[in-house]
Write a structure and sequence with these properties.
There is one protein chain. By secondary structure, this protein is α+β, with helices and mostly antiparallel strands. It has a domain of 139 residues: SET domain (Beta-clip-like, Beta Complex). 19% of the residues lie in helices and 25% in strands. The protein contains three helices and eleven strands. The strands form four sheets. A four-stranded antiparallel sheet has the order 1-6-7-5, covered by helices on one side. The longest helix has 17 residues. The two termini are 28 Å apart. The structure holds zinc ion. The site of zinc ion has 6 residues, from loops. Zinc ion (ZN) binds next to loops.
């Protein structure tokens, strides 16, 4: 495919969006062991399959910033409406994917992704980057920059989970930061919590 994966801006807050039935050929939305809702394979999906499009309203960067802040404020007041699903499309535009048709917004992050987002003629498509088994969760790399990683803990459950949502390209760099005192402290706290819960990802 040769196209670049995009940085993905998403702030997630618990307790939102009811179950949606999907007429997508490949995937469906269901509760996830990682976070809230997730996207799962209806059937075996071969590598390099276009499984869904990240659809939504095209908005300017300025509007994107305004909505992001507004939605975060709403989330602070009422957790049921709280989520920001804004995808960085190009230098000028973003996509606000907070519409019911957009099941791609439920795809969770993992340190071991099986899917990648591609910008093709200014539309965002999700492609599998390895074969995905039936009922396996669709997982992507949110591509978060290294700054503010403490705000984005990762509970993907992958063997090589680095503990925070960090872009694949920055993970090696991040591993060198892991011995910092505050990082160790948070990882320890989270380990206790997650050992009580069974994760879906091996
Ligand atoms: Zn992880």
């Amino acid at each position: 495919m040769g196209l670049q994966s995009l940085a993905f801006v998403r702030v997630l807050i618990e307790g939102m969006a009811e179950k949606k039935k999907s007429d997508n050929k490949w995937v469906f939305v269901e509760d996830s062991g990682i976070h809230g809702k997730g996207v799962f394979a209806k059937r075996y999906i071969p590598e390099d399959t276009r499984i869904m499009e990240y659809v939504g309203e095209r908005i300017s960067k300025k509007e994107s910033q305004r909505r992001g802040l507004e939605q975060m404020d709403m989330a602070a007041e009422d957790k049921r409406v709280g989520a920001v699903y804004i995808f960085d499309l190009n230098k000028k535009w973003d996509i606000d994917g907070n519409i019911p048709e957009n099941i791609a917004r439920f795809a969770n992050h993992s340190c071991k992704e099986n899917c990648e987002a591609y910008n093709i003629d200014d539309r965002i498509f999700y492609y599998t980057c390895k074969p995905v088994m039936k009922d396996e969760e669709i997982l992507i790399d949110y591509g978060y920059a290294l700054e503010h990683f403490l705000d984005h803990p990762c509970s993907c459950g992958a063997k090589k989970c680095v503990g925070f949502i960090v872009a694949k390209s920055d993970r090696a760099k991040f591993k060198r930061m892991r011995n910092r005192k505050e990082v160790k402290f948070i990882l320890k706290k989270r380990k206790k919590k997650s050992s009580k819960r069974k994760s879906k990802v091996a």
